[in-house]
Amino acid sequence: MKKGDHLFLVDGSGYIFRAYHALPPLTRKSDGLPVGAVSGFCNMLWKLMVSARDTDVGVVPTHFAVIFDYSSKTFRNELYPEYKANRSAPPEDLVPQFGLIRQATRAFDLPCIEMEGFEADDIIATYARLACEAGADTTIISSDKDLMQLVGETVSMYDPMKDREIRVPEVIEKWGVPPEKMIDLQALTGDSVDNVPGVPGIGPKTAAQLLEQFGDLDTLLARASEIKQNKRRESIIENADKARISRELVRLRDDVPLVDGLDVLTLQPPNGPKLIGFLKAMEFTSLTRRVAEATGADAAVIDPADIVVERGEEAHGPDVGAGEQVPTSDLAGKGAGSAGPVASKGASAAAMAGTPTPANLVATRAAEALAASIDRTAYVTIRDLDTLNEWLADARETGVLSIDTETTSLYPMEAELVGFSIATRPGKAAYVPLAHRNGTGDLLGGGELLPGQIPFAEALAVLKPVLADRSVLKIGQNIKYDWVLLDRLGLTMAPLDDTMLISYVLDGGSSSGNTGGHGMDRLAERWLGHTCIAYKDVAGSGKSQVTFDMVDIERATAYAAEDADVTLRLWRLLKPRLVADGLTSVYERLERPLIDVLGRMERRGIAVDRQILSRLSGDFAQAAAALEDDIYQLAGERFNIGSPKQLGDILFGKMGLAGATKTATGQWSTSARILEDLAAEGHDLPRRIVDWRQLTKLKSTYTDALPGFINRDTRRVHTCYSMASTSTGRLSSSEPNLQNIPIRTTEGRKIRTAFVAEPGRKLISADYSQIELRVLAHVADIPQLRQAFADGIDIHAMTASEMFGVPVEGMPGEVRRRAKAINFGIIYGISAFGLANQLSIPREEAGAYIKKYFERFPGIRDYMDETKATARDKGYVETIFGRRAHYPEIRASNPQVRAFNERAAINAPIQGSAADVIRRAMVRMEAELEKAGLSDVEMLLQVHDELIFEAPESLVDKAIPLIRSVMENAAMPAVAMRVPLHVDARAADNWDEAH
DNA sequence: GTGGTCTCCTA
DNA sequence: GTAGGAGACCACA
């Protein structure tokens, strides 16, 4: 939104009541359904959308939204429980119209916005503020006095029934005070309809006069004794508190955590057929005719739409999630309109197809994609600059460039660019070889560049401006890899789209795991019915594998150009599905902006002290060797301690120890748990085995392996983050995995001391405290948990206290430990079996604990049941930000499979919401640091609930509070959590001390 | 050499 | 009981 734009905000809830009372009561559909208010509403919307210039407002809106009350319960009830308490139930023939009005709004393709905990007025106030900040004007379609406090230079109101605009003079004329004093005026007068107390005996006239005399409410209350009239003075002094609470009740919040910004409210031309379908169903014949004339649609051939009549008062759309603004597909559809030059082209293509709904576009594209065959012989090898320039000009023309780099390594931080492929239209793809060679350049000779390749620097020079061109969308499959590689070469790509991430948002969850994830080969099979050339068919595999620069250019062209072509085709197919499925904002807020954030983190890497690791390796080796001697002695023979099979035979075969259990495959289990139990019985050997395993694990996985990941050039370790490999929305880290560096044991912790800051700098670690339990407290809305988190109490002790009736003071450690295990169990989709295992107690006892827990926290059981039901119903569950995780196998007939999927479905919204929160923090972090003059503070690592930064020592004190603030407020404004988030942060020279 | 199994490190 | 990645072993090719 920009200066000169004009936003219309319709107070839908206010309108419906006013229309109901103002219009003839007898308007009914032929089946008796009362639709008088709906009819008035539709006529008004149509008029405002197409001929607002003819009204008293006299301008054409550029942005438009209809705002509703979500329910009668809002934050005001917490301030004043009696608020709106005397409001009687709405008339019976109005009730079904609440839902119809929302359906009408969607039929008009207008954003339909409501939010739990806030009134429509608060949402209106927030959007009006945002519009004002953007330099735009706002007209509020309402005549409600509660909204008049918002009127000002850029905000006016419009009474649609009187066709009259309300500006500052009109407010003064009606109430005797300017808009900015309306809050104080209402605080004094109160409101009998909403049960706002006010000061008894003070009406609007008196209130206006008093405010005129004293200026504002605070001054009036402070100097009340100066009032001459006895009765009035006494009343005000006595009811000062009522006036203050009233002021808080009538003051509108303009900081509502909106899910969608102003751009989503952009007014689209009316969708004739869709609207007519609704109007016909409602039997609004004259409006149907007017709409048909205006949109050129033939009403005769359009069938009436299906109308859902809801009888309850809570008449929300079916897609309203608890605590969320309605992220309807309508809204998402609008959002996609602003996705750049490409989306608009897609939209016009769909319009030509005649039925421009997102779902139809998706269907058309899917059919197209399957029908089109892929012809590898049409691919081009670009060997000169002129041809390359022609192709890049075509990219500027189409506004899209599918790109894929070919390199010598899977690690983008050490890979060398060998060539790149591009595609500008489906089927039009080319490969640009840059560094193919005629051999490895070993003793046999060779290693020279092959002829017929554009000089490296010249090719990059012409590519660079296109990659940086904001009007050309760069599309890739796992484009973070290409981004990092090209960024190293000084080429920065923006804006980006990633087919892997689009697929991840659309089809994330266990279903994608079973079908091979979101890799391109898999997506091509699934969506295009096409089998891509396998990498190993081009470069070989195993010992005979060669790097891509050794691949024959013709062969490379077929392989590489196909990748770019397939990626472009997938993008055309999958991108519209985001809109159709209402997942645009998940992609736009949680995935797309994270690509370059993670890319920079990977590029920065973290310093690892080789000496420390090498010393630790030596220590571990020595200690392990000593244990090996003991072990052979105790066992009476030498064997491979690392072989569970051999170890099992020694322990349970040769020595005949009791307590043996078998693994799934019938082997003796030698897990740490079993060995610990044996050790507790006084057996020495199992104890040594456990210790030996720990040392060898630390040595092989960490102290020996990590130095191999230190990059030759940067001398730092650069992990690779995967954005699309978990079912819940978490990231994963590999090569090396820096999300599982030891911390639990003292020996293991030492490894963290090897992760260090450069001289003069510090590492800062900031981690969320109990974020998943807080998410649970929020989504399941558990009063005791909310209270405990609000008060900062030890949550596990509180749980124990609730369950076992033990006071928190002097609680035995074992009691708290059990409660803690239960709390974690809940997050994991508890089972008696699992809890029993965790606590080493009988299954019956564990079952009794769980029963007890659910008695104390019935809301948790309800939440779990509801989550399972949704998963069965829809096949997926959602995080609080709308990310979906699919669990189709929750309907499996196999009880084990089903139970597993139920637990996963319970866990996913909790784990996933927490993952979304930290993603949001990461997306915002860099800009916030920069704004605070802290651009030298660098985000390096993410470990699920922790972020690691490296900062110059001098900036640490300023950085810590800012980092905490960004992390703690990361859910806002999309979700106002009912539980505060808490972040601990610390700085030190190494990761061990910082954490 | 590849893939399955077991074990163990993290949140 | 959730979500990951990785090393070692071992049977198979």
TrEMBL record:
Residue ranges constituting the DNA-directed DNA polymerase family A palm domain according to the UniProt record: 748-955
SUPFAM superfamilies the record matches: 5' to 3' exonuclease, C-terminal subdomain, DNA/RNA polymerases, PIN domain-like, Ribonuclease H-like
Alphabetically ordered keywords of this record: DNA damage, DNA repair, DNA replication, DNA-binding, DNA-directed DNA polymerase, Exonuclease, Hydrolase, Nuclease, Nucleotidyltransferase, Transferase
EC top class, as a word: transferase
Known EC number: 2.7.7.7
GO MF term set: 3'-5' exonuclease activity; 5'-3' exonuclease activity; DNA binding; DNA-directed DNA polymerase activity
Record carries keyword Ribosomal protein: no
PROSITE patterns hit by this protein: DNA_POLYMERASE_A (PS00447)
Domain 5'-3' exonuclease: 5-268
3'-5' exonuclease domain span: 379-579
Function of the molecule: In addition to polymerase activity, this DNA polymerase exhibits 3'-5' and 5'-3' exonuclease activity.
PANTHER family: DNA POLYMERASE I, DNA POLYMERASE NU
Subunit structure: Single-chain monomer with multiple functions.
Protein name: DNA polymerase I
Gene transcribed to yield this protein: polA
